[in-house]
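FORM 7B: Structural annotation worksheet

SECTION A. Query
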Amino acid sequence: MNPYQQFVASFASLITNGKSLPLGNIPAHNKPVSKSNAPVALIFSPHPDDECIIGGFALRLLREAGMRVVNVAVTQGSKQERQAGRLQELKNACDWIGFGLEQTTPHGLEKINPKTRSGDPQHWADAVKIIAAMLTKYRPRVIFFPHELDWNSTHIGTHHLVMDALKTLPQDFQCFLVETEFWGQMASPNLMVESSAEDVADLIAALSFHVEEVRRNPYHLRMPAWLQDNVRRGAELVGGQGGAAPDFTFATLYRLRQWQSGRVEEILTNGRQISVKDNPQAVFNGV
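SECTION B. Predicted structure
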């Protein structure tokens, strides 16, 4: 009798049972209300739904540090017939979780990828101006955006779009850079942020408001397993090779750096692991 048979079967049954859970249409809950003058965290999302998938750290900054989190919808997807629907789903998701929402254009930016960056400089420059204006408007303390090797062409494009926009800003502009991963893993993350079961449940609930996307592919149901695997990876990628794994159940991996004096600066000499007991903004203090 294999003692792990029931253990593995329970994971399979969770996915099966999860398919009967509602998509969106979840009653509103109490959301923290940030002060209008609170420090801002901007999430530059390549697609509607990325704000929930990588949002563990941002949600903790909202709930525990009182920061104002605003999701910037860089694109609304490549299928024009779905852009209006995806925008409505995005509005529903952000409203439920408590994130603000900014559109880049009424239908989102188009062709945000490395090919456009190298082959259509005018289109790219126009998009860079829009992102630079967003950064100037909010003067965020921290921004979230994909790392440069996040596989999906729009994710990679969004990385370069944000970096190119930063380079156009005055020398006195500064903020923390939190690079994210989803499609392609980072080789060198330096920050692992634990999420509570309650936060993960809320992120998945918000993600379920992207109804047509998760109906096509129920990736929201696999998100807990991904967050658990991040603990395995982060134990050594962030904590150091051969290090003991922290007693985390769910976590998200990031790369934390700083934009200052017109360039990227490294600010962590060693990886940091932020548990649910830690103040999530402590990683910024003293920098």
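SECTION C. Observations
The longest helix spans residues 80-97. The beta strands are 40-45, 68-73, 100-103, 142-146, 175-180, 191-195, 250-260, 263-265, 272-274.

SECTION D. Sign-off
Analyst initials: ____
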